[in-house]
Every structure is written in C-alpha cells, then in structure tokens.
Amino acid sequence: MTARLVDWFDRRTGIRGLLHQALDEPIPGGARFAYVFGSGLLFLFLSQAITGVFLALYYVPSADHAHTTVAYIVKEVSSGSFIRSLHVYGSSAMIIVLLLHIGQTVLFGSYKGYRELLWLAGCVLFALILGMAFTGYLLPWDQKAYFATAVGTNILTEVPWVGSSLKQFVRGGNDLGTLTISRFFVAHIFVLPAAIFAFVGAHVFLFRKAGAAGPPVRAQARTTESFYPRQVLMDVAFTAVLVLALGVLAWFIPADLGPEANAADTRFLPRPEWYYVPVFQWLKYWPGARAIVGIVVIPALVAALFAGLPFLDRSKERRPWRRPFSVGGFAVVMLSLVGLGVQSRVQDERDPAISRQLALQHDAVDAFMKEPFEPEVTAGARKVEKAAFVNTTVAHGKDVFAAQACDACHGADARGSESAPSLVGVAARFPNGQLTQIVKTPNAKMSDGGMQPLDAPDPDIAALVAYLESLQ
Amino acid sequence: MTEQTRRSFLGGLLAFGTTAVGALLAIPLARFSLDPLWRTTSGVLWSDVGPAADFRSMTAPMKMQVAIEQRDGWRKVLSEKPVYVVTRGDGRPRVLSAVCPHLGCSIGWSDAKKQFICPCHNGAFAPDGALLSGPPPRGMDELDARIEGGRLQVRYQYFRQLVPTREVLA
C-alpha cells in the first residue's frame, strides 16, 4: 500500500531520486557531532519563522499599539507568553549555534577547496541573522527596546559622509517613532527573512556542490559514510536538545516585557541583548573624534578579514594546529568579545549609581509583568460637546438635528453616512432662506433619497437652519 | 536483520518521533491562534442611564445617551448610543433601543404626534414602543434594564433587522 503510494508520487515527482540524493550524500571520515550545527540552525530558523508568523496574528506595528499588543500576547492570549518566549530565546539560540557553526568551520578549515562562495553566502547569512536580532528587538516597544535601538541607530552617524542621512533613513526620521517601528517590522518580517531564505538556498546548494569537507586530518577521511542514517540521527538528536532547551526555558522562565517606551525618561540606562553587549562595551573606548576608528574602521577591517578568510588562507593545510593565524585570529576575536562582555558586566556592578538604576529598571519590569492586562481605550464615535457651541441658537439647532433624527442619515456631526450626504457647507448651496424652505419641503431628488419633510415649530426650524449654516 | 529492513525501521522511528514532537509543538500554536474562539464573546457590560428617580414621573419618553464599553481584542471601545426610557403601566422604566428594527435608522420621538417616528421610511411606534404602522417588522427593541443602587442601568445590544422576532446579535 505505502509502496504503491510512494510509486505514484515517484512517477510524478521523482521523490525517490531526491531522497536518495539528500540522504545518501557521502561524508568523508563518517558522521560526527561536529557537523550538526548547520541543521540545528535550519531548524531554529524554521522555528523562528513559524512562531513569528503566529505572533503576527496579534502584533500591530505602530508606536501607539505595539506595546499593548505584545502585552496582550504575553498576558491574555492562551500560550502567548510561551510562543513569544520561544521566539525571544530562539533568537539567542540562533546566535549561539551560529557561533558554534562558524567555530567548527574555522577549526576544521572547511572553507578550503573551492568553497569561497559557500563561505561568503554564510557570511551574508551571519549579517542577516544579526540584522534580524537587531530589528526584532525594537518591536515590543518597551523601555529597553526603545533605548537600546536609540543607541544602536545613533552609531550609524559615525559612518563618514552619509552617517546622519543613513540614521534618518533607518529611523524614518530624526527620532525613534512609529515610522521606525514600521521600517523595522518590514525589515524583520519581509526583507530579511526573504533574503535569508534565498541565501540558505544558495548556502545549501553550494555545500552540496562542493560536498562535505570531512575531518581536517586527511588520514581520518579515508572511509566515507552516507548522510543517512547516522548523521541524520545525530542532527535529529541535536535538534531534540534544542527543542527541549528552548521549551524548558520558555515554559519555566518566560521572556519578560517592560513598561511601554517613554522617551522622556532621561534616567533609563540602555543595555542591549547579551550578544550585542561586547559591541556596546567596545564603543565606550572610542570617545569623540577617535570614534570613527573604533566604530567604523576597526569593525570594517575585522569583517573584511573574516569574509576574506578563504582568500587569505589559501594553503591546502586544514589541521588547526598548523594554521595559527586563521585559528588564532578567530580565537582572539572571540575571546576579546567575551572579555568585553565580562568587562561591561563588571563595570555595571561596580558603579553603585548604575547598578542601583539597573535594579530599579529590573523591578519596573517585574512590576509591569505582575499588572493585569490593560486594554487600550478607543473612542468608538466622535463626540461633539455642546460647550463647543458659543451660540445658544446653534446649540439648540444641534439638539433639533438629533431630536428630529436628522443624525440618523446625515450622521452625528452632519458629516454624512452611507445613506445621506454630508451637510458641511450646505448653506452655500442654498442661500437666502432656501435652506428653511428645503428642510420643510425637500426637492424631488432629496425625497427620492429618503428625505422626509421636517414637521417642527418655526423657532426649532430657525435654530436647525442656524446650526446647518454653522457647519463649515 | 538485513540492512534494508534496519534502515526502513529506523526511518519509521524517525518519522514517528518527528511527527510526535511536531504535534506536541503544534498544541501551543493551536491554542494561540484559536484563542479568540474561547473568549466569552458577550463583552457587553451594564451601562449607566441615570438616577432611577428621574424616570418615575415622565410624561413622555426620554432620549438618553448611554456610554457603552465593549472589549475588542486588545482594545476597549467606548461609544455613546441613544436609548429611550419609557414607563410601563406599573411605573417601572423600560429602555428601548433607538435603532429601527426595519433598516437601522435612528428613531425620533414626535411630541406633536405622541409617537415614535422613524425618519427613513415613516415607521410609527406607540409611546411604549409597540408597532403602529409602516414597514418595520416588529416594535422597537427593548433592552435589558435593571435598577442597581437607585440607578437605572442598561445592557446595550444590537438586534437583527427585518425579522419579526427580536434576535440578539452577538
């Protein structure tokens, strides 16, 4: 039965051939746990895409609703806090697994042997994922999101010549506001994911074209083993660990949401998400005119060296202990980042004023999380206060307008509805007492539209006409 | 066991495992997306009309604006709706919706005729809201009302138009 069904599909899709190609790919030297990180990343990306799509069911990307809708997800919607937590922690997990993936590639020298484009596609993916983390961080529009993004986007002004224009482009204006949310949202859910899908495709294609690199020691690569079953099992085992870790974290320590962004809070100390803390600390060392060196020149050099690795390290040698510059350089950069992160934490803890403020901010987040959800209040219908009418006749006319149910068709403010036109400026069309005449005896066109002749005492009609004439 | 059967057994185990884990992960997603279905839809709360004493010695129906509070997902919508307070034989106030059961125009009270008149199609209703003449299929719709702590309260609802019986719209 199953075989016949598979036959049916195979005839039409060639599924057996595809599966064979996918599963029987030879791995020189056999399956290893060192090779699981790529599939882990793919799984995490899919998990982020799925949870992200679901979060978009309730999220509204605008400065006046973003925070309320995220609070609604966290505090009211069933499983909302869990799904948001999976998404929040998933972003951190992606960075961790990405670093492991890169570390393994650098250590094994797997970028060698006609794999420059494979490496470059990976570099682009690295940048795109950092972009996802940065754009996603703003969307909840709470205090830390707002201020961390304010700092993050300010860095752009250090870019020579176009810096301030670049900052304005990214923010959609001089300051962080509702246009910034729109831009970050579009980047986060349309532009960057589309690019990630494309580059993942390229990355996997180029990987299959070049073939698995295998272990760095040639003697270990004599035998080969197909991808299925042992490597598949290892990949699945790693993915299961990821699922379990994310699930347990999201279930027991749900991601928090702070109070809504308040630009006027001048005491708030922004601290980025852990993976950006080293960069945050690094920027402290480059004040004033030297900033351009630390913020633009050095990071650009490091990025260029990193992306250019397969072009610079061209020997056939893949054993890490024989490649001190590439492996050592990578280790130095990684350790520096860790050092900067630790340094930042230590400085925050040593400064009593800062640690006190950070504790206050932490308490504010806890307090907000304990508060029940507060729905956003919206006025359903516009209300015209009677006090707005200086002229008492006009005010009386407005009452007549309501009492005679003119508002039923012409709308509460005489601005029209589906069944009758707006009366704003109607006096100009019927001057010199014609208006009084027309409300008492509507013309043929009005009668056809459902307009009833007005039957009311003359002072009421006079007041009504005064009200209609006041509509500008 | 041959290599072939071992491989397909493993494949089945993998397929079963991933399906099971996938199904487990789908539970929160289903709960999340189905959340609006499980919310009690009648977000209609009691709205204040005014002190009950004010409505005891009425000679004609009184038009009142009541503030309505409705939950709409993460929003709380505040709006004002007109209602008529009329008295029954026993002197207890009743509250009528001003929405015409014909096509939904706003019904007006004519002091001269001592009738409710719908301006759109000339439906006429008695001072207690009963249908007198015109196209409306039924009398004016009565809203749930109660007196709490000396104040008249109403639960504002919408009713289906063009049908002879009063059907509440959720």
What does this structure look like?
The complex is a heterodimer of chains A (472) and B (170). Chain A is an all-alpha fold and 472 residues long. In chain A, strands 1-2 form a two-stranded antiparallel sheet. Chain A is built from 21 helices and 3 strands. Mean pLDDT of chain A is 91; it is low at 381-388. In chain A, 64% of the residues lie in helices and 2% in strands. Chain A has helices spanning 2-13, 15-23, 37-55, 66-75, 80-108, 116-138, 143-154, 163-171, 178-210, 227-252, 277-284, 291-307, 309-312, 324-350, 352-370, 392-403, 406-410, 426-429, 434-440, 444-448, 458-470; strands at 26-28, 224-226, 376-379. Chain A is elongated, with a radius of gyration of 32 Å. The longest helix of chain A has 33 residues, at 178-210. By secondary structure, chain B is α+β, with helices and mostly antiparallel strands. In chain B, the strands form 3 sheets. A 6-stranded antiparallel sheet of chain B has the order 1-10-9-4-3-2, with no helix packed on it. A 4-stranded antiparallel sheet of chain B has the order 5-6-7-8, with no helix packed on it. In chain B, strand 3 and strand 4 form a beta hairpin. Chain B is elongated and about 100 Å long. The interface between A and B is large, with 45 and 44 residues. Strand 3 (376-379) of chain A pairs parallel with strand 3 of chain B, so a sheet runs across the interface.
